[in-house]
UniProtKB/TrEMBL annotation:
Domain PucR C-terminal helix-turn-helix: from-to ranges: 351-404
Highest taxon of source: Bacteria
Domain CdaR GGDEF-like: 190-301
Gene3D superfamilies found in the cross-reference section: PucR C-terminal helix-turn-helix domain
Family, similarity comment: Belongs to the CdaR family.
Record protein name field: Helix-turn-helix domain-containing protein
Length: 410
């Protein structure tokens, strides 16, 4: 929450007005080039951004800076009402339609950085009196940061409106076109590609994003959009097809054969809490488009049944589980035959054995991952062996599958 607005005297207000006039006198090209230089660094670190988006953001930021300066010419050192310019609205719509609206946050940070540097330089040109500079810079910092924060709020409101429009219009049309493809409804491929804005030739990797129940709500679209951006970056693509079958679930198709590492997105997941990702096997052409999605949705169903659903689940992680989980009685029989009395052991013992298998039966690595003493791990492994019909070392694959089935059973 914003603190109390600084109170300044008439001299500081006059300096503020002169600085605003100086800012307004700068050509549009200079303001745009200043923000462009900052935003180019962001674009270089993200494969999802192209030069058109960066250029549009530069123009929008220049318009916002002029809006702030013009208001301070008439009412210097007062709070400026934030209104999105036409350029900013167009940029917001473009970002939403590409699933890149989280870029707006970085764009505003860049705008604030540029505005502050430009303004501070101008303040030092206006006066060298410390008694004037201190209150001038103080109220300037509050004014710029408050204006940028208000613009962010307006942008988020525009993002939600555009998402609603997509749901009512073109997004619903894309969903209908995708459902026809998935159900094998005959029709010209070229027409489906025009409706989707996505080529059906070449490689495809289908992804399902969804939010867990406790995180579902009004902010679901924002965190799902952030996760979709992260997935595209991790896959190294700039384009993808996004379809929203519900508020809490998004379907993605990436034009690449992507087989992510299990830890590929773990670090970024703090930016989109509660989102889970299921990845299908890559495929080619229309059949690959369809099969990869079937794999991804099957993976989602299995991952969603786990008591500790991971952030990222690949089809290869659960393919064998899917074959067994389809017959609950046989799955239960397999678990009992493989684990014996260890099936009723504690969750901590089950997790220890999973970690041991995940670290390729390396006891020292397991102890490090669990922050436990190596001898403690050895004792628990010996106890697990004693409770099973056969030693773990003789049935490593079977034990791993049985432990995963226990996770599904919860």
């Amino acid at each position: 929450m914003m603190g109390e607005w600084p109170v300044v005297d008439d001299r500081v207000k006059e300096l503020f007005r002169l600085g605003a006039e100086f800012a307004l006198a700068q050509p549009n090209e200079l303001l745009a080039s200043m923000t462009d230089a900052t935003l180019s660094g962001i674009a270089a670190s993200s494969v999802s951004l192209d030069r058109d988006l960066v250029a549009a953001a530069s123009v929008a930021n220049a318009a916002n800076l002029r809006q702030w300066a013009a208001a301070n010419v008439h009412r210097p050192a007062e709070r400026v009402r934030a209104e999105l310019s036409d350029d900013a609205l167009l940029l917001t719509r473009d970002l939403v339609r590409r699933g890149l609206e989280t870029f707006a946050v970085d764009a505003f940070r860049a705008a604030q950085s540029v505005a502050w540097r430009m303004w501070m330089f101008g303040c030092f040109q206006l006066t060298s009196d410390v008694r004037e500079l201190h209150p001038l810079l103080d109220v300037s910092s509050v004014s710029i940061s408050t204006f940028i924060g208000d613009l962010q709020k307006e942008t988020l409101r525009a993002v939600e409106e555009e998402r609603d429009a997509l749901t009512r219009g073109s997004d619903a049309e894309r969903l209908a076109a995708v459902v026809q493809l998935l159900e094998g409804v005959p029709g010209p491929r070229e027409r489906a590609e025009r409706r989707l804005g996505h080529s059906l030739l070449g490689p495809h990797t289908a992804v399902v994003l969804w939010t867990e129940q406790e995180h579902a709500g009004a902010g679901s679209a924002t965190v799902l959009a952030a996760a979709a951006d992260a997935v595209a970056r991790a896959a190294g693509v700039t384009r993808r097809l996004v379809v929203r079958p519900s508020a809490a679930t998004w379907w993605l198709w990436l034009p690449t054969a992507w087989s992510p590492h299990a830890s590929a997105l773990d670090l970024a997941s703090a930016d989109w809490p509660g989102v889970r990702i299921a990845v299908g096997r890559p495929g080619k052409g229309v059949d690959g488009f369809r099969r990869s999605h079937v794999d991804a949705t099957a993976t989602q169903r299995l991952a969603g049944r786990m008591v500790d659903c991971p952030v990222l689940t690949r089809h290869t992680d659960v393919h064998l589980l899917g074959l067994l989980a389809g017959d609950p009685d046989r799955a239960q029989e397999f678990v009992r035959a493989t684990l014996g009395r260890f099936a009723d052991a504690s969750d901590e013992d089950h997790e220890m054995l999973r970690v041991w298998l995940r670290h390729q039966c390396n006891t020292s690595a397991t102890a490090g991952a669990l922050f436990a003493h190596r001898n403690s791990v050895l004792r628990r492994l010996a106890r697990a062996d004693a409770m099973m019909p056969r030693p773990v070392a003789e049935q490593v694959v079977e034990v791993g599958v049985a432990l995963q089935l226990l996770r599904l059973r919860g």
